[in-house]
Specification:
Subunit structure: Part of the 50S ribosomal subunit.
CATH architecture of the largest domain: 3-Layer(aba) Sandwich
Strand content: 5-15%
Number of strands: 6
Mean pLDDT: 92
Strand order of the largest sheet: 2-1-3-6-4-5
Keywords: Ribonucleoprotein, Ribosomal protein, RNA-binding, rRNA-binding
Order of helices and strands: EEHHHEHEHEHEH
Structural class: alpha/beta
CATH topology of the largest domain: Ribosomal Protein L4, Chain: A
Helix content: 25-40%
GO biological process, one term: translation
Family: Belongs to the universal ribosomal protein uL4 family.
Number of helices: 7
Shape: elongated
Number of domains: 2
Distance between the termini: 17 Å
GO molecular function, one term: rRNA binding
CATH class of the largest domain: Alpha Beta
């Protein structure tokens, strides 16, 4: 399949061939769902923690004598029955990450790219470069291209001026090609790939 190549000034710059193995698949929601769940679970901090009875600072002396008070038998003030005592089965720091095979992760990225291509939400741009980091100038160019909520993927390195101009625009994310991921692709309305990013992706999936 072919796609039109455009410039930041919304001018045509020829056509480019898109690999059917990467951009021509029938998107599967189950694979995309598994990948998004994998990403969101992996980025959770998992740092919640509470003190159990062994970590609470309190006296170890028996609270009162065993018999003759008419009250329940208690030994420690650190149990969960008392205010300031430890919590039973509370959360502890842990990893929330789940396992997902590497082949499924690669396939999910292909399906996400194919989903954007089928929805006519994929834009191939010649270069992501600006002479000066001017946010106003970049916003005007994006409006010409009809870009609002957009993920922009450049080559191995993103030009500093372009990244600085884009970082103040809402709903606009700019990533190098090695940072491309399913979650960011799906949560933006459009996906913009530079020619350098397109070449890198096709080389990656060969």
């Amino acid at each position: 399949m072919q796609a039109d190549v455009t410039t930041l000034d919304a001018k045509k710059a020829g056509k480019v061939d898109l690999s059917d193995e990467v951009f021509g698949l029938e998107p599967r929601e189950d694979i995309l769902h598994r990948m998004v769940r994998y990403q969101l679970a992996k980025r959770r901090a998992g740092t919640r923690s509470v003190q159990d009875r062994s970590e609470v600072t309190a006296t170890t002396a028996k609270m009162y004598r065993q018999k003759g008070t008419g009250r329940a038998r208690h030994g420690s003030q650190r149990v969960n029955l008392f205010r300031g005592g430890g919590k039973s089965f509370g959360p502890k720091p842990r990893s929330h990450a789940i396992e997902l095979p590497k082949k499924i992760r690669a396939l999910a990225l292909k399906h996400a790219l194919s989903a954007k291509a089928q929805a006519d939400a994929l834009v191939v741009i010649e270069k992501c470069e600006l002479k000066e980091p001017k946010t106003k100038e970049l916003k005007e160019r994006f409006s010409k291209l009809g870009l609002g909520s957009v993920l922009i993927i450049d080559g191995a390195e993103v030009q500093l001026a372009f990244a600085q101009a884009a970082r103040n625009l809402p709903n606009v994310d700019v990533l190098p090609v090695q940072g491309i991921n399913v979650y960011d692709i799906l949560r933006h309305e459009k996906l913009v790939l530079s020619k350098a990013a397109l070449e890198a992706l096709e080389a990656r999936f060969k």
